[in-house]
């Protein structure tokens, strides 16, 4: 009998249909990948299994977990089941962890809630769980807090919490979306190892086909609350027939049609830039020591060029970006835009700053939800000495929105009224409104579904052609960088270790670090889809 058996599951929330006719199974030792875009119902399917549903939710059908129908269990029985029989790994580890509790206490808490053991025994078992998640105590003491760990290390803590009681089923909900490619590969390898060692079943939820293409045993594709295609991972990509499945596959490997608009005229020049941060003193009168985040970095971006910057978390990408934008002063070196310095003395040069704009990773978090789109898009006007007013301002807002495929009516809406892709279009409209020379895209598409990501990449390519824009594209998604950039820089430990034309760097990397990044990147199977 299957470890998890879902049969004809329907879910309504306040009368609105969310899931319809969902049937799938997970065997012990099997990995089932559930793929779909935002709103497809994949996460809600997992929440039904955990019975973590909002008020007003009603379910019908069967969800058999370890020979019990979870839809018939009361809350006390469900509390005993969660963690002990089924564990869950969430997408964002920083929000899943308590920031004021040590990692040892958080893993031990899972054990103490479910079993009558001493605190000392719970900590011993927490130590074992963290070690199995590749956080050995000699390197990562139980006394550490989440903020002292990297993103990948925090995700390992969440995994340790999920496996502390050796559950029979593990649900991983987008566990690698925000991680670097090498860290992502490590987490996926760890999850596969734990499934193999414990004989667990795993439900792997993701919007990325490449992530599960060589990891899952079975793949289920969902659209609008229904399963549209399912089958063995080894053959599904060759046999898929549903239009949505085919469209999802094509979007995953989408390469926008780009026109080379690069010139031989340098726009941004970065010369011998160094950025140090003072470290806390270890003793009262000890000399101040420094951490070098950016070490003697040199590169140039030509007008009309799209330059990629890749590297793992902590390599110095964000620090360098803040320096280019004039948000942090550097210790030495020069940063010039159009021949003018970004810094005038110890202050940012406003005449230069207004010629640069940035698009952030999270389009929702980068906006004030209390303001309407018209105000949000017009925020860069504060950089101008004489910002437009009245009808002139409204016309500029309309032009900016229309340039990204939105309408004048959207200016009177709030940001929560838009989808993720529409929000990112608004973020691009905000960046365009003062006609900048350089746009910095900081992980601008990493949080988007593959079809929305394809649309945004097409939009950026079209804007570059129409407006002659210059891009600095920062991303950990190498497939995106490959498709949208002319040249690429590879950064490691604050230094540029390799640079060159994008195709050359990706096809024939020279530096060992570049080779490791490319080797770790997930790939779609090479098939022909009609």
List its traits.
Rossmann fold, 22 strands, 19 helices, 25% strand, 530 residues, six-stranded mixed sheet
Write a concise synopsis of the structure shown.
With 530 residues, the protein is an alpha/beta fold. Among the domains are: 1-85 and 168-253, Rossmann fold (3-Layer(aba) Sandwich); 96-166. A 6-stranded mixed sheet has the order 6-7-8-3-9-10. Strands 18-19-20-13-21-22 form a 6-stranded mixed sheet, with helices on both faces. Strands 2-1-4-5 form a 4-stranded antiparallel sheet, with helices on one face.
How would you describe this structure to a colleague?
With 530 residues, this protein is of the alpha/beta class. Among the domains are: 1-85 and 168-253, Rossmann fold, CATH 3.40.50.300; 96-166. A hairpin with a 2-residue loop joins β1 and β2. The relative contact order is 0.11. The model has no long low-confidence stretch (mean pLDDT 89).
Mean pLDDT: 89
Write down the CATH topology of the domain at 1-85 and 168-253: Rossmann fold
DSSP strand count: 22
Spatial order of the strands in the main sheet?
Answer: 6-7-8-3-9-10
Helix content: 25-40%
Assign the CATH superfamily of the domain at 1-85 and 168-253.
P-loop containing nucleotide triphosphate hydrolases
C-alpha end-to-end distance? 38 Å
The largest β sheet comes out as: 6 strands, mixed
State the name of the first-level CATH class of the domain at 1-85 and 168-253. Answer: Alpha Beta
Query: Which blocks of ≥5 consecutive residues have pLDDT under 50?
Result: none
SS summary, helix count? 19
Classify the secondary structure makeup into a structural class.
alpha/beta
Q: Give the CATH architecture of the domain at 1-85 and 168-253.
A: 3-Layer(aba) Sandwich
| Radius of gyration using CA atoms only | 25 Å
What global shape is seen? globular
Strand content: 25-35%
């Amino acid at each position: 009998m299957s470890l998890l058996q879902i049969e004809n599951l329907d879910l309504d929330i306040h009368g609105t249909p969310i899931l319809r006719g969902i049937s799938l199974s997970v065997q012990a030792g099997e990995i089932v990948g559930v793929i779909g875009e935002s709103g497809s119902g994949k996460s809600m399917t997992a929440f039904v299994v955990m019975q973590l549903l909002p008020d007003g939710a009603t379910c019908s059908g069967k969800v058999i977990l370890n020979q019990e129908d979870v839809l018939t269990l009361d809350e006390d029985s469900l509390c005993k089941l969660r963690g002990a029989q089924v564990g869950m790994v969430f997408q964002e580890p920083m929000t899943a962890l308590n920031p004021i509790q040590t990692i040892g206490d958080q893993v031990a808490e899972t054990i103490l809630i479910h079993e009558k053991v001493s605190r000392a025994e719970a900590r011993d078992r927490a130590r074992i769980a963290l070690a199995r998640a590749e956080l050995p105590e000699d390197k990562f003491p139980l006394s550490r807090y989440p903020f002292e760990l990297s993103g990948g290390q925090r995700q390992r803590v969440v995994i340790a919490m999920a496996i502390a009681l050796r559950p029979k089923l593990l649900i991983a909900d987008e566990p690698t979306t925000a991680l670097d490619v090498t860290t992502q590969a490590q987490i996926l390898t760890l999850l596969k190892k734990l499934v193999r060692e414990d004989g667990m079943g795993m439900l792997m939820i993701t919007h990325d086909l490449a992530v599960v293409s060589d990891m899952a045993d079975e793949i289920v594709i969902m659209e609008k609350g229904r399963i549209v295609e399912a089958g063995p991972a080894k053959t599904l990509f060759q046999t898929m027939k549903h239009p949505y499945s085919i469209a999802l596959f094509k979007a995953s490997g989408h390469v926008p049609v780009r026109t080379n608009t690069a010139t031989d005229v340098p726009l941004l020049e970065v010369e011998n830039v160094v950025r140090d941060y003072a470290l806390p003193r270890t003793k009262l009168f000890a000399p101040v020591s420094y951490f070098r985040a950016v070490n003697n970095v040199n590169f140039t971006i030509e007008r009309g060029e799209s330059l990629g910057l890749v590297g793992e978390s902590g390599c110095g990408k964000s620090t360098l970006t803040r320096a280019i934008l004039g948000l942090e002063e550097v210790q030495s070196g020069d940063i010039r835009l159009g021949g003018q310095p970004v810094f005038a003395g110890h202050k940012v040069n406003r005449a230069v700053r207004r010629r640069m704009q940035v698009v952030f990773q999270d389009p929702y978090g980068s906006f004030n939800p209390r303001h309407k789109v018209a105000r949000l898009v017009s925020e860069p006007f504060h950089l101008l000495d004489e910002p437009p007013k009245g009808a002139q301002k409204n016309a500029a807002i309309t032009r900016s929105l229309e340039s990204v495929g939105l309408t004048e009516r959207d200016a009177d809406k709030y940001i929560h009224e838009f989808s993720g892709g529409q929000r990112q279009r608004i973020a691009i409209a905000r960046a365009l409104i003062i006609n900048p020379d350089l746009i910095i895209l900081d992980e601008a598409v990493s949080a988007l579904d593959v079809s929305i990501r394809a649309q945004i990449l097409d939009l950026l390519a079209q804007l570059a052609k129409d407006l002659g824009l210059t891009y600095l594209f920062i991303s950990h998604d190498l497939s995106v960088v490959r498709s949208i950039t002319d040249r690429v820089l590879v950064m490691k430990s604050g230094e540029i270790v390799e640079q060159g034309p994008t195709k050359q760097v990706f096809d024939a990397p020279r530096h060992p670090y570049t080779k490791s990044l490319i080797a770790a990147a997930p790939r779609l199977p090479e098939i022909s889809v009609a």
